[in-house]
C-alpha cells in the first residue's frame, strides 16, 4: 500500500462572503448599523400611526348646557332643545342686534307656532340695558342668558366673533347652519328657514 506523502498545512484564505469583515470599514462599530435601522423603523411606525388616525368627527349638535332664563324666566337645557327652531345670539352692546330683534319678533308672531324662536343674550354684563332692549323690541319669544360665553366653540357653535349670530336647529337637535348675519326682514328669515331646515312657511 502506497501512502500519500504528508501535506504541509497551508493557510486558509477567506474571500468574498466568507470574510467576517466584508462590507465594513476598518474601525466601524458593527452595532451602529443595527441601532440606525431600529431608529428608522420606530420613526416609520410613528409616521404611519399618525397618518392612520382618522380626524375627530365634528360635533354639530347643540352643546349639553343649561342656560339661565332671561330676567328670571325658565332655564333652558340646550341638550334637550329640538326644532325646527331658530336661535338668535345677541347682546345689548351689539348695535345691529337692536335693528334685528324687532324683525325676529315679527317672524315669531307670524310663524312661531311652526318654527320656535330662542334668543341667547351672549356675554352681556348690562342686565338693565338688555331688559330695556327687550322691552323696546317687544320680544315675546323665550330668552336665556350666557354671561360667561359658555356656548362659544361648544357643540355645533363656532367661536363667535361679533354679533348677531343666527342658528338653525332641526327636529333632532342638530345645528344645520350657524351664521353671523343681520336679518333685515321676516321674509329673509322665511327663506333661510326653507333653505336650512326644509320648512316652507
TrEMBL record:
Gene3D superfamilies: Glutaredoxin (3.40.30.10). Residues 1-30 are annotated as: Disordered. Residues 1-27 have a biased composition (Basic and acidic residues). The keyword Methyltransferase does not apply. Residues 56-198 form the Thioredoxin domain. Its main location: other. One of its GO terms (biological process) is cytochrome complex assembly. PROSITE patterns: THIOREDOXIN_1, THIOREDOXIN_2. One of its GO terms (cellular component) is cell envelope. GO terms for molecular function: oxidoreductase activity. Keywords: Cytochrome c-type biogenesis. InterPro entries: Redoxin (IPR013740), Thioredoxin-like_sf (IPR036249), Thioredoxin_CS (IPR017937), Thioredoxin_domain (IPR013766), Thioredoxin_ResA/DsbE_sf (IPR050553). This is Thioredoxin domain-containing protein.
